[in-house]
Design brief:
The structure is a single chain. This protein is mostly helical. The protein has a domain of 101 residues. The chain contains six helices and no strands.
Length: 194
């Protein structure tokens, strides 16, 4: 009977040990799943924070742009209104270019260009390399000024107006040539008929 009791006890111990191992593995699996879930949540939180920081920078930039636009709008309200008839009267004393408000970005760029060229003008001609570098920088600044001037709204508007005029002129020329061709065709038909 001792032998049977010890085998039952050994069986119960094995069942308890297997149950404990199953519970340990289950708890381990749950713990690993929770850790993985926490890692994913931390990664998503980091992405959300990065997106929030980026949005904060964009909001700051837009706020600065809005402030600059408001400042320009307030200055434009302070400027006297001009009509076409008054431009003719004042054109002898004030150039039209001074009557058009210049955006703040253009003034900053112009001031930067002026200061850069002023500094470069005072450079001593010590070496050929330095002279070449100064020439290269001055040419680059001049190119930037030209590109900014070419892309300014008044130049783009003038180019659009000239393109519109050229389109109308070519349309008139086409119609004139078409009328002339029809007239010549009628004259040829009349000669053949006669």
């Amino acid at each position: 009977m001792g032998w049977l009791a010890s085998s039952v006890l050994a069986g119960v111990a094995i069942v308890v040990a297997l149950g404990a191992m199953g519970a340990w593995f289950s708890a381990r699996r749950r713990l690993d799943a929770e850790r993985a879930h926490r890692r994913l949540a931390e990664i998503e939180l980091q992405h959300a924070r990065a997106s929030l920081d980026e949005l904060g920078h964009q909001v700051a930039e837009l706020t600065a742009d809005l402030g600059e636009l408001r400042h320009v709008a307030m200055r434009s309200r302070e400027m006297p209104d001009y009509v076409i008839t008054s431009l003719m009267a004042e054109s002898s004393t004030t150039p039209v270019a001074q009557l058009i408000p210049v955006p703040a970005a253009h003034r900053r760029a112009q001031a930067l260009e002026d200061s850069l060229v002023g500094v470069l003008a005072h450079q001593q001609d010590v070496s050929r390399v330095r002279t070449r570098v100064v020439e290269l920088v001055v040419r680059t600044v001049a190119l930037g000024h030209g590109v900014r001037r070419a892309l300014s709204p008044d130049v783009l508007d003038r180019a659009a107006a000239e393109a519109h005029v050229a389109r109308r002129r070519s349309r008139r020329n086409r119609k004139r040539e078409e009328r002339e061709a029809k007239r010549l065709l009628r004259a040829v038909k009349e000669q053949r008929a006669a």
